[in-house]
Amino acid sequence: MSTPVPAPRAYRRLSVEERRSQLLSASLRLFAHRAPDDVSLDDVAEAAGVSRPLVYRYFPGGKPQLYESALRSSAEVLERCFTEPRSGPPTERLARVLDRYLVFVDENDTGFSALLRGGSVVETSRTNAIVDGVRRAAAEQILVHLGAQQPGPRLRMVVRTWIAAVEAASLIWLDEGKQPAPDELRDWLVDHLIALLTASAATDGETATAVRSLVALERPEGPVHRLVARVLPLLSDVSPAPTE
């Protein structure tokens, strides 16, 4: 009795877009946890289960083009992290934004560090523009939630400063083994923005208006009131400056 010969496995031919998406997905998985300089086209081909020439066929610019495409894809995901409906207390919206952002950082740890620290051989003016575009989009979203229709230079600087601080804190968080816990880091970053806004409000009318609007929407048990309750005792012995 002869052994039946298994039928040949049927393979579906991928469309151009499907193949490109497959290669991009493979490269994103690699770039997430390895620095760009440590990822080769052979690595991408192996991860996708294709040949190196096929990678070149879809990305004739080689690794720089592939990295830029992967970066644009990640940037779109990261920008969506900062998109939040304008409902509820602003600090609660901000907390949800930061939760999504920290999940992205956690899931793309090595790639995120390499991206923000720069110095890669595949870094170009275009990749730098992509990263800066994410920063600007994040800042614009924060300004929207502060109710700033046409923000002036001081308020815009406060928000851009906070975005830079969030990036720096994220890198330190990765260096420190992702400690403290993400929810603790999130709460600290919310407090940080409140503190920056409050300090600027003392000398800038527009920021003061934004802070008053923010406080009016906050819950009594929310981050703003908790921060005030913790800070006021520290300042109880500070004498006010004499007025002229």
Write the topology of this structure.
Elements: H1 16-33, H2 41-48, H3 52-58, H4 63-81, H5 90-107, H6 109-117, H7 125-145, H8 153-175, H9 182-201, H10 205-217, H11 223-231
Helix pairs in contact: 1-2, 1-4, 1-6, 2-3, 4-7, 5-9, 7-8, 8-9, 9-10
Key traits:
244 residues, Tetracycline Repressor, domain 2
What does this structure look like?
This protein has 244 residues and is mainly alpha-helical. It has a domain at 71-233: Tetracycline Repressor, domain 2 (Orthogonal Bundle), CATH 1.10.357.10. It is built from eleven helices and no strands. The radius of gyration is 24 Å and the shape is elongated. Mean pLDDT is 87; it is low at 5-11.
Named CATH architecture of the domain at 71-233: Orthogonal Bundle
Average per-residue pLDDT, rounded, comes to 87
- Which regions have little confidence, pLDDT < 50, spanning 5+ residues? 5-11
What general form does the structure show?
elongated
CATH superfamily of the domain at 71-233: Tetracycline Repressor, domain 2
Largest sheet: none
Class from secondary-structure proportions = mainly alpha
Strand percentage, roughly? Answer: under 5%
In helices, the fraction of residues equals 55-70%
How far apart the termini lie comes to 110 Å
Give the SSE string. Answer: HHHHHHHHHHH
CATH third-level topology of the domain at 71-233: Tetracycline Repressor, domain 2
Radius of gyration: 24 Å
- Please give the number of β-strands: 0
Number of helices: 11
